[in-house]
Q: What sequence folds into this?
């Protein structure tokens, strides 16, 4: 194993640990409220700082994990791990917290935390996974996309730049057309 691969694996592990730690931190800051002393007009208003943190941190973790997966030549689905770990931690600790307590508050802030963490993270995951589905223009120029090659007056579709297979298909098509022409001339 090369030194760079070991460093990438350690950083990937650190990102996964960060996902769990951020989930715990965000979960514990859900009940944060103003005390009314600093801002008397605000009273006991809730401060949804954990929702903002979740909305920023989960997509960032997903994107960084996808970059490490690409660099390590690992499956693209590895990018789903931080989002899955975050969700399992929030639900596991929030609904079955220490001593059976419910840490995840049963109001709009609890649902907001789940939505703020899962929706942007899932969107980032979908964008990263979707990038590999359609070849880019650069890949098409190099021969990775759908190309057409003419041969014998007919065009054959080429996938992945297999020009030899297209040539055989074009030749067999022209031979078939020639046979049809001979067949017609023989019938006259």
A:
């Amino acid at each position: 194993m090369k030194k760079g691969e070991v460093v990438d694996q350690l950083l990937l592990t650190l990102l996964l640990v960060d996902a769990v730690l951020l989930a715990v931190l965000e979960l514990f800051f859900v009940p944060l409220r103003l005390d009314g002393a600093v801002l008397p007009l605000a009273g006991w208003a809730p401060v949804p700082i954990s929702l903002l943190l979740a909305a920023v941190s989960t997509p960032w973790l997903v994107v960084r994990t996808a970059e490490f997966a690409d660099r390590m030549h690992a499956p693209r689905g590895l990018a789903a791990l931080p989002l899955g770990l975050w969700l399992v931690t929030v639900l596991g600790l929030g609904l079955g917290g220490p001593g059976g307590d419910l840490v995840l508050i049963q109001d709009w802030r609890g649902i907001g935390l789940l939505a703020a963490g899962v929706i942007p993270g899932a969107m980032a995951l979908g964008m990263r996974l979707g990038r590999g589905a359609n070849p880019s223009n650069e890949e098409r120029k190099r021969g990775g996309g759908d190309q057409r090659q003419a041969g014998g007056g007919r065009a054959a579709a080429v996938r992945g730049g297999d020009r030899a297979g297209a040539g055989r298909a074009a030749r067999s098509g022209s031979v078939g057309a020639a046979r049809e022409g001979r067949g017609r001339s023989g019938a006259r």
